[in-house]
Amino acid sequence: MSFFQKPSKDALTEGRLLARPTKPTGTAPLGLQPLGLNGDRSDGTAQSDRDGCLYVPKGYRANQPAPLVLMMHGAGGNASNGLLPFRNLADKNGLILLSVDSRNRTWDVIRGGYGPDVAFIDRALAQTFSRYAIDPTHIAVEGFSDGASYALSLGITNGDLFTHVIAFSPGFMAPAAQKSKPRMFISHGKWDPVLAIDRCSRRIVPQLQRAGYELLYREFNGFHTVPGAIAREALAWFISK
Predict the structure, then answer these.
(1) N- to C-terminal Cα distance for the chain?
(2) Apex CA 104: angle with CA 100 and CA 107, to 5°?
(3) 157 closest CA partner among 45, 7, 52
(4) Do the strands 52-56 and 31-34 form a parallel or antiparallel pair, or are they unpaired?
């Protein structure tokens, strides 16, 4: 679906996340932990070994709502890979990181349409919201490569949930609808051999700017990667906005 097409009535229900921050009940652990949702096949997947992980910083307090970043790995990756850009920065910045495995090798919309990944992400978010106090003014969706394309697509479709979108080296965007206008951070290596900058971010960024999104764009001298300096800048931008 073109970014500028008016979505059909049916499309408005696609890619939509229903989970929202709420008052958590009871206490929940800190540190790195599995989601424990991999045995639930209500998303329609046959791959019950695909799950995800949550990182809760050491300084988390239930009476101090924390920023949350939903993290999306690249094609062929997993939730552990997805954590990498911000994992070593979470404690210092008080971030809760939620990283999920795609149901298959990469994300559903890249394979043809929204479906099982959205359902799984919604359950992962609902579980996180029920256990931890989340700051509703700082909820980001982040991704690298295919994960960045998915983060852009989900972020635009669910701008009434996500306040920020962080896309490291995206290839495209395929939102099912436009909801509000989350702030955007996009980066891309000038010499990227996997997702060439000229046909990817240098096309995506002007589209978003013309559509009125507030956007910070960084090109860097490098390849298909997330340099530490770029990750730190993106996180500082997220925390400060």
Answers:
(1) 30
(2) 65
(3) 7
(4) antiparallel
Pair 120, 111: CB distance under 8 Å: no
Residue pair 141/154 in contact (Cβ under 8 Å)? The answer is yes
Residue 107 phi, psi (nearest 5): -80, 150
Strands of the sheet containing 96-100, edge to edge, are: 31-34, 52-56, 96-100, 66-72, 134-144, 164-168, 183-189, 215-220
216 with 189: CB under 8 angstroms?
Answer: no
Q: Which residue is it, tokens 């306040």? A: 163
Q: Is 112 left (phi over 0), alpha (psi -120 to 50) or beta?
A: left
Q: Are 138 and 164 in contact (CB under 8 A)?
A: yes
Residue keyed to tokens 């910083």: 57
Tell the residue number behind the tokens 């059909």, with chain if given.
8
Please give the biggest Cα pair distance in the chain. 50
Q: Cβ atoms within 10 A of the Cβ of 61, count?
A: 10
Spatial separation of the C-alpha atoms in residues 69 and 67, rounded to whole Å: 7
How confident is the chain (241 residues) per 10-residue block, as mean pLDDT?
43 80 88 84 55 96 96 95 96 97 91 90 96 97 98 97 98 94 98 98 98 97 98 97 78
**Where is 215: in which H helix or E strand?**
strand 215-220
